[in-house]
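Dear U.,

Please find below the material for section 3 of the report. The protein was modelled together with fe (ii) ion; I have listed the sequence and SMILES used, followed by the predicted complex structure.
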Amino acid sequence: MTTMADRLLDAMARSAARRYSGEAVSELEHALQCADLARQGGADEELQLACLLHDVGRYAVDQALVSDTTETTRVGPGARGHQEVGAELIAPWVPERVSWSVRVHADAKRYLCAIEPEYFDRLSAVSRDTLRRQGGVMSPDDVAKFAEHPWVRDAVALRRWDDEAKVVRKQTRSLEEWSPLIRSWFDR
Ligand SMILES: [Fe+2]
């Protein structure tokens, strides 16, 4: 029987052939780098899992359903970003903290742009362009709300690792090495 873990690992393996949103690394390299940075940064396993899967809405979901990853973007009511579609895909399987951190990884960028001017200056050209499509810099009201969330530190940490996880030909742990963690949540 094919499990959710099998399907997810298969989609991740295939994402090695997909370029990460105009950056010079593949989607798989990006995911593995992000997870490694979390691990090296002392994140617990839940947050490492969130980092590994944060872009699952890019490679494990039909992109025709997603509003922000393709040229022919869906707009208007019902259009949802890859972070929402991805969070929804994994939500039945993982702790809420994991799916929430995935769901808000675009908002975390909008938040950081609002509270740290130097953060915006460091964003890659691609990331600046998607910021617009993701709603732009967060309003002061939304900043105050976001800052109060109990998991805000996780969201910000994931975001910073996400931004760094674009280094060409960086050595990382392999997908196989992450497979036990993925199976522990999705093979049930
Ligand atoms: Fe990412």
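For the text of the report, you could mention the following: Residues 97 and 151 are 7 Å apart (CA to CA).

Regards,
Y.
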